[in-house]
From TrEMBL:
This is Integrase catalytic domain-containing protein. It comes from Araneus ventricosus (Orbweaver spider). GO terms for biological process: DNA biosynthetic process. GO terms for molecular function: nucleic acid binding. Residues 635-689 form the Integrase zinc-binding domain. Residues 883-976 form the DUF5641 domain. Coiled coil: none annotated. It comes from the Eukaryota.
Length: 980
């Protein structure tokens, strides 16, 4: 069974309770009807005896698979099966799905009933048969039988048993497809053994019903035997045989019950009762226009007309139409088609004429089709054209169905205007008529259209409609055997009729004068593709030729046309750029001494193209390689040619590109041109992108101005680290982190232990830090992408550092602290923390050779290096306490003075990014550099916002990608070489 791929099979849920409840309801009905109870039990007993279902004893899960509810349908008129059990695969389960919701319906594999019935009429000896229990002869894969489970019990007090159906089950969506697909596979597998029967199995079966035959009795008997043997190979048998034993039984009868009240109950797929059904359609359209509700009583005049029509339907049973429409061994078979239209309806009818000699021929009605006219007012000629289109479509369908050798196909219409339109090129007509004429000409290009008078047109009955009693024995509709012998197709069409001329497009003559040079310049601006430019020029030349003469050339330009267009393009380019050289060559055969082409010894070939003369005249190279075509260095066509070769050579480098171009062309300054094209190629740039950079910015004020230690700090995290909190061996280690806080101006470091990456832990660390160092004014941090730990740790740290919750935001607000984030990926912007940890000493305290002490962050914290051992004072000084305080103050001031004079001066130099470059602009397309991701996978984005610094240099931008808008540094971007 074909399940839909987008729906999971486990979406069915529990169906047991639903099936059990419906089984109880079924038994209540069976107890009220003993006859139905007996037939129902016999049906399922036969199902089990034929091994079409099996009992399940090990099914414990009610939601594993699907339980099919079932009920009975009584058919007293059936000869073989009085009651059929119908399995309902549309019943919903607890999830709201049914089995049919999960199954694919499959396609239609067999011909439609119209084609089969039409083909059935060509056989002199015909038969019908039916495959016995076709669905139940096809087994289902055992792994899918759990979706075809049923519940049944032999009596109301018996235990409920579970059964699995083993065969294709009617009631499931896929059952018709599986059955017909199996028949077709059987026919293909046994084609060599049963060639005739396999063809019948493929073409003449409508579901399990066969309608087929043969041209003589021997073929008929052979086919009957072979078809039975073929189906036996698939475990199937034919029954309900019926054949054309006599002329009385070989007729199509029509039955109609007088109690039926609607024309829709007439089943007439071939349209034998077309005029009667056409009248009913016209009547129903009248009711719709009167806006009469279905439950509303009809007006008396309309009710009387309808009653009269219904009463006439009893005459339908007197209509009998021969099934066989051919004469034995005809010399010629002619198919006649007629179309007609009126203000109310239009239609088409087809007849088949078989001719044995000039005086012996038969003509039979084959089929018909009718439609009511649109409610919107349409002219009669347009309706006649619509009838012609309907006839063309019906003729094509009949010819495909019959599969006979038809000697002539004659199509008739009584409208000279419609016939004139059909004989007119569609492009000359207005849209409505043009579309239908084009379809008619396509469908009937091999057939002949002719004119017929209205009194001889049988399709006239379709366009007006008649009652059933007038259709019985109506020879005008069913046709006399020699009625087509008098038809004359030599009627002159009236192409001066105002209705015919009204559908022609108006013709306005326009005189256009163009300057050739301007036209060429405009054309080459249309596209940047050299091959497309050649195609455009070729089509322009074709248009010019069609204007000069009646040319019917169409389709893609030929190879010769494209070569001529290429020569024209190259000649126009050379005339505009090498005009003086060409003039000199035409006058004296050489270029002037001051020409830039003199080293190439150029010459004009037979087509007027300027080529390189060179020194390779005696080589065995091809002509184009010895004498390549000269191209100017600065021209759009030259760029287009180089771009074309660059693409067809799979984006080769400049050297290989130049080599391939010089096999045919010689562009001046070719090496530089090839480099320019390669460097401006977006595809090549994506494969080898260049990272953008900008002049290094000035240091922030927090790093270059004296201030309290830890007034402005940077914060980062390190970890995780694992520690033992308990002495027992089996206790798991605890994960901790280290919060690193560093002073931006003095490089002093403060370390805090953090238990986890939460807002509470970070707040506690900051409180401990401020209790030791005092309140801070500003805190800087990056976006935590410098961690190389696991992905989960990075995500947690990112959320902590960038998306602080309300608790953390309130803490910052209360402490009057400004928290600043750097854009993601801009480690160079706030690289102070990592950089300072790697270079702790700041500068020497003095320039004396013997003085080895250097300026360190400890001098700002305690006045000396943290690692030094305090030395006791060896000499007692007479200074009082005030003088000692002044001495300490002087020492601190000396330290800050040395910091300002020496250390800050060391920060003056830029060690990279020393030159200013062009700023990125809004709208630029860029590739975003991503770590640990291949270049081909880098995201593409567009600049939507700029963040200029104090020096008006752009170093941070907002980028819009397919996943959102992000802020990034220009050092993470690669600007695509696209000219905006």
């Amino acid at each position: 069974m074909p399940f839909k791929p987008e729906i999971e099979k486990n979406s069915l849920g529990d169906s047991y309770q639903m099936a059990s409840k419906m089984l109880d309801n079924l038994w209540k009905r069976l107890n009220r009807d003993p006859t139905m109870k007996f037939l129902y039990s016999e049906f399922l007993r036969e199902y089990k005896n034929l091994n079409h279902m099996e009992e399940i004893t090990n099914c414990n899960h009610s939601n594993d698979g699907y339980f099919l509810p079932h009920h009975g349908v009584l058919r007293p008129s059936s000869i073989t099966t009085k009651l059929r059990v119908v399995f309902d695969a549309r019943a919903k389960t607890t999830t709201g799905y049914s089995l049919n919701d999960l199954l694919c319906a499959g396609g239609v594999l067999q011909d439609d009933l119209f084609s089969i019935l039409t083909r059935f009429r060509k056989h002199q000896y015909a038969f019908t048969a039916d495959i016995s229990k076709m669905f139940r002869q096809i087994e289902i894969n055992p792994s899918q039988r759990k979706y075809l489970k049923i519940l049944w019990k032999e009596g109301p007090e018996e235990n409920v048993k579970r059964f699995a159906l083993k065969t294709v089950t009617y009631g499931t969506t896929s059952a018709p497809f599986l059955a017909t697909r199996t028949l077709q596979q059987l026919a293909k597998d046994e084609r060599e053994n049963f060639p005739i029967a396999s063809k019948v199995l493929l073409e003449d079966f409508y579901m399990d019903d066969c309608l087929s035959g043969a041209s003589d009795i021997n073929q008929f008997m052979a086919l009957k035997k072979e078809l039975g043997e073929l189906l036996l190979r698939g475990g199937m048998t034919l029954h309900k045989w019926c054949s054309s034993e006599s002329s009385e039984s070989d007729l199509y009868p029509f039955n109609y019950c007088e109690k039926q009240s609607t024309i829709a109950r007439l089943f007439d797929p071939l349209g034998f009762l077309g005029p009667v059904i056409s009248k009913a359609k016209i009547f129903l359209q009248r009711l719709w226009l009167l806006q009469i509700d279905w439950s509303q009583k009809l007006p008396s005049d309309i009710a009387q007309e309808w009653s009269s029509f219904i009463a006439s339907l009893s005459y339908v049973k007197n209509i009998k139409i021969p099934r066989f429409v051919l004469r034995p061994n005809p010399k010629e078979i002619i198919l006649h088609g007629f179309s007609d239209a009126s203000e109310k309806a239009y239609g088409a009818v087809i007849y088949l004429q078989s001719v044995c000699d000039s005086s012996d021929n038969n003509t039979f009605l084959l089929c018909s089709k009718s439609r009511v006219a649109p409610i919107k007012s349409v002219t009669i000629p347009r309706l006649e054209l619509a009838a012609g289109l309907l006839l063309a479509q019906l003729t094509r369908k009949v010819l495909n169905a019959l599969k006979l050798k038809i000697n002539q196909v004659l199509l008739w219409s009584d409208s000279t205007v419609a016939l004139s339109w059909i004989d007119t090129p569609p492009h000359l007509l207005k849209t409505f008529v043009s579309n239908r004429v084009a379809q008619i000409q396509e469908l009937t290009k091999e057939y002949h259209w002719s004119h017929i008078t209205s009194k001889n047109n049988p399709a006239d009955l379709l366009s007006r409609g008649i009652d059933a009693q007038f259709l019985v024995n109506n020879q005008f509709w069913f046709q006399e055997p020699d009625s087509f012998n008098s038809l004359n197709s030599e009627t002159e069409l009236n192409q001066s009729d105002k209705n015919y001329l009204s559908e022609f497009k108006s013709k306005d003559s326009v005189c256009l004068t163009l300057k050739t040079s301007a036209l060429f310049d405009d054309v080459i601006c249309i596209s940047n593709n050299f091959q497309k430019l050649i195609r455009i020029i070729s089509l322009i030349f074709r248009f010019i030729n069609k204007c000069k003469k009646n040319s019917k050339e169409c389709g893609a330009p030929s190879k010769i046309k494209r070569q001529n267009a290429e020569i024209y393009i190259l000649r126009e380019v050379q005339v505009r750029t090498f005009g003086n050289e060409i003039h000199s060559l035409e006058q004296c055969g050489n270029v002037t001494p001051n020409s830039k082409l003199k080293s190439l010894s150029p010459f004009l070939d037979s087509q007027g193209i300027l080529r390189v003369g060179g020194r390779l005249r005696n080589s065995i190279l091809p002509y184009n390689s010895k004498h390549p075509i000269l191209l100017p260095a600065k021209h759009k066509v030259t760029d287009m040619i180089i771009q074309y070769y660059h693409k067809i050579q799979f984006h080769s480098g400049p050297q290989a590109l130049l080599y391939n171009i010089r096999q045919k062309f010689w562009p001046l300054n070719g090496r530089n041109l090839c480099r320019k094209i390669v460097h401006s190629c977006v595809t090549c740039f994506k494969a080898n992108p260049k990272i953008s950079s900008q002049k290094m910015g000035d240091l922030p004020e927090d790093r270059v101005n004296p201030n309290f230690v830890f007034n402005s700090v940077g914060i980062d995290f390190s970890g995780p680290f694992y520690i033992k909190t308990k002495l027992r061996k089996r206790d798991p280690p605890t994960k901790i982190y280290v919060c690193i806080i560093i002073c931006l101006s003095t490089k002093a470091i403060h370390l805090e232990l953090v238990s986890d990456l939460s807002s509470e832990a970070l707040i506690a660390a900051l409180k401990r830090f401020m209790a030791r160092r005092g309140k801070r004014r500003k805190i800087l941090s990056d976006n935590a992408t410098n961690f190389v730990g696991t992905k989960n740790e990075i995500n947690r740290l990112f959320k902590l550092m960038e998306q602080q919750d309300a608790l953390f935001q309130n803490f910052l607000s209360e402490e009057e602290i400004t928290w600043i984030h750097s854009p993601q990926g801009t480690s160079s912007r706030w690289s102070l923390i990592e950089g300072l940890l790697n270079s702790r000493p700041l500068s020497p305290l003095s320039s004396e050779v013997k003085d080895l002490e250097i300026l360190t962050p400890g001098h700002f914290l305690i006045g000396r290096p943290i690692t030094s051992i305090p030395e006791p004072l060896m000499v007692e000084l007479n200074d009082n306490r005030l003088n000692r305080w002044q001495l300490l103050t002087k020492k601190v001031q000396t330290i800050w003075k040395h910091w300002s004079k020496n250390y800050l001066n060391n920060l003056q130099q830029r060690h990279k990014w020393m030159f200013k470059k062009d700023n990125i602009n809004i709208g630029d397309m860029v590739l975003i550099k991503e770590d640990n991701v291949p270049v081909s996978k880098w995201s593409l984005g567009r600049i939507v916002k700029l963040y200029p610094g104090k020096d008006n240099i752009i170093r941070v931008v907002d980028i819009k990608t397919k996943t959102g808008i992000f802020k990034r540094s220009v050092s993470r971007l690669c600007v695509l070489p696209i000219e905006r």
